[in-house]
Amino acid sequence: MRYNRVLILTDVGEDFDGKVLYTNNIISAISEVTNxxxxxxxxxxxxxxxxxxxxxxxxxxxxxxxxxxxxxxxPMMVCRSFQxxxxxxxxxxxxxxxxxxxxxxxMLWATEYINSEVNVLFVTHNVETEVAxxxxxxxxxxxxxxxxxxxxxxxxxxEKNHINNSMTIxxxxxxxxxxxxxxxxxxxxxxxxxxxxxxxxxxxxxxxAVIIGSFFWKIKQQNLYTFLKEAEPHLQSNxxxxxxxxxxxxxxxxxxxxxxFNIEIHDNVDDFKEYIENSRVGLIIDKAGGxxxxxxxxxxxxxxxxxxxxxxxxxxxxxxxxxxLIFDTYxxxxxxxxxxxxxxxxxxxxxxxxxxxxxxxxxxxxxxLF
Length: 370
Prior knowledge:
Number of strands: 13
CATH architecture of the largest domain: 3-Layer(aba) Sandwich
CATH class of the largest domain: Alpha Beta
Structural class: alpha/beta
Strand order of the largest sheet: 3-2-1-4-5-6-7
Number of helices: 13
Radius of gyration: 21 Å
Number of domains: 2
Order of helices and strands: EHEEHHHEEHHEHEEHEHEHEHEEHH
Largest sheet: 7 strands, parallel
Distance between the termini: 5 Å
């Protein structure tokens, strides 16, 4: 099916990560089946493929954010993304488009202001209600449990109120697709993540394992801290193995990590290419939260084999999923990592399989809707 005019709504930020790669894939695929693409965003610096016709950037205003969250039924990510100027814009012009693409759960509120005659595609990056529930499950502090329960309920209400039967929903894995099939009667399509970036692949020459992520969020900090507490004794007895943590974080959190763990940290860097150009393994260690599913794209693009905790991936997330190893516990992950870090032949084979699966996805029509 071909469309005349398509509008894409996204609040993806400027951080260069899997979420951005996935968004650019969506933009690229849609650009192939439409005559005109317009994008509404709060920051257009992340667009790699300039295949769209118009980009409309609205200033993102986040004054009184906590009060907005406290006195509304909206989740925090929605309070950050909701803008009245975007609402007004949609009310005036949404009827002019054949298809409107809602990119990410945080922008789902926009469906209230879209003309009911327009086709809508809701592109999911996670099942955000389950992400909220996962945070609740790992909370131990009573106050965090209370706020976690409130946040989960807000996500649930928000999702139920804004997904209507007419829109098409995309899913990133079978797990997510099964969730939406069970909860809703919409047409569900699966859009597996892939990357077509021609990045220089790691030489695998140094015994380094890397964790890439954004650690401003408390649950991300908790995931990392818990993993490092288990990994540290083993790393101390294998001093020729280096663990690198690369990503955004506060100075306070960085200082806490350095005070407690013997690791290498590169925080808030614009381009982490030079820090992983010789590394051997990419780690996914998140047991709760969201966003780590798309971390696969970062590791694939740099040619790193992937070792993940069970909660971090699903087997179909990138093709057949043969190119990464999945473990039930941190202990199992660490033990196998320290064995395999010396087996470059195995690691090279793993990354070749990942690359081949990615290339197979790249050669297929990724948006089954079209």
